[in-house]
Amino acid sequence: MSGLSPATLRVARSVARTLFDPGTGTPVPDARLDWTTTELADYATKAGPRTSNGLRLIFLGLQLLPLFVIGKFARFTSLGFEDQLRYLRKVELSRLLAPLLATAKIVLSIVYFEHPDVLAEAGVHPTCMLPSNNEPIAWKQPEVSR
Amino acid sequence: MSGEIIQGRSVEGDLELRAQVCIVGSGAGGAVVAKTLSEAGLDVIVIEEGGHTPPEVYGKYRPTETLRNLAREGGTAVTMALGDSPLIAILQGRTVGGSSVLTGGVCFRIPESVTHRWATEHGLPGFSEKELEACYAEVEREVHVETVPEHMRSKSTVLFGEGMEKLGYGMKPLRRNTKGCCGCSRCNFGCPHQAKLSVDLTYLRKALQHGTRIYADCRADELLIENGRAAGVVGRLVDGPTGHVRGKFRVHADTVVVCAGSLHTPLLLMRSGLGKRSEVLGRRLTLHPASRVAAFFDTEVKGWQGALQSTYCDDLEDEGITFTSVYAPLNILAAAVPGVGSAHHERIRKMGQLAVFGVMVHDQGGGSIYKGFGREPFVTYRMAKEDKHKLFRGVKIAAEAFFAAGAREVLLPFYGFEPVKSVDELRALDPRTVPARLGECAAFHPLGSARMGSDAYHGVVDPNGQSYDVEGLYVADGSLFPTSIGVNSQLPIMTVATRIAWGLREKLASKAPVSVAS
After folding, report:
1. How far is B57 from A39, CA to CA, in rounded Å?
2. Which of A87, A99, A124, B198 has the most CB atoms within 10 Å of its CB?
């Protein structure tokens, strides 16, 4: 079956909110998380059932493992924000579980960092990722004939 | 007579088609065969599983839109690791033009050491550079292979080169199939300026001009074989990226050329009951496992400004290690930036100071392909011990080069490892503490799963690409390479496909119909 269930998308949204939190006290805007979730759902559907099933398993793993990583008997989405941060940090540095978070981070990052507001915050002009004939090219070189 | 591209998603009902030649796959190999044979007046049909997205459309895609619409499994196909081996992501195109739409455009000829081995160890003479010169020349002319000029090297590439020189290694310029490249580093996601001359812009356009019909959204399921002879292909019409089936097709042709790529060509042959005499169908897949090393500098780098790939170092070619410049759109790079929360955010804010370079291993070939449960194959890979050492050594050298160039922090491609902040810390890293399964690897050059051989036991096809099992059946893609080649495979695939196509042309052209294309 292609696509992600609402439950999986809820976990993904929660992981994204924690992963990409800037640490400034202002959380990631809900609209940006909604956009990320929608894009992720579309991506998983188009990537096919094997990818969708893999992502379901990965987010299920992240949802259920806090007990074994930080000793909290709770699902990831039920943890407080600080515990979520602590949990993901430990997973990232675990030689056993790091690939789990790495995969989640890859799929979340590639959609999240396409949001134009996010690029602007990173100080990058969207031209490098969204070039069009109407925008300046990123690199100037001598004119070449086609 | 002009050909056309027909999209299966727009077809009502089933398709029953006839041609002299049916080619499965419209990538580097298939496009070459289509153009060559249709120019000779043959009636050619190309069957392509992916959809047709014009370059003016994919040139405006965001990177994930490209992955969703043009890449197989959204770019997430991975090998199943056996033993202490990394998971290896394999990027393949699934679109008219195949993987050539998604390559960095790098063009190398097959090294003489490799073709010498083919001749002496595999009984396959005739592939030396001199013997293939006419084929190389034609391909290089058709796709406009040129050396990347020095002024197009990104600062990321320049910094790495400076570091390598301090370590005593030399960098060389790369050649790519480009014309008018402006250096926006988007090659892997579809060139926005039609400057990277993938086969949809070159060979396929000429094939269409000579009457080739390309059927997109058509997934080949099985080859038709009658009395030991190729008789055509059957499959399904699919509805765009979701792959939902909407009908069937049958192509009647007494010459079939399979160019579905190293993961799907053996699958199609297996599903058609072939390869039973050979020990190698679906085996000995080589991947050129590659990793990236990234480094933060205190100065602005803006690595996306410049040609995506412009230099390489082959000083360690004898050890099977190559360093190749590379970059990626920021959303792709952000995925590899370590840290959670504020630690990640701090590094993201400094992406303009990030440099990246690639390490590639000329591998022994530990991959195998099996029929999966759905439409995709199940691919396993066991990395040879020597290849693990090569990867680790290559990564360490690349990291040291970045420190030599002044990097303040280097991100190693090993899951669970913190960035290193000094060359002493790097040198203290013991390979025994870095299992290969924690390596972050990708592969862009799968080869060898339906290889050429001097007989039916050691090969699936003969040196002319003809199947040992079925008359009139050929293979003309990367799957027929008998070994890994240690360099980017696009140009070699097109060159060997040219050799096969010229042979086929000679054999078949006398049977061409009277009315030929203009």
Report:
1. 19
2. B198
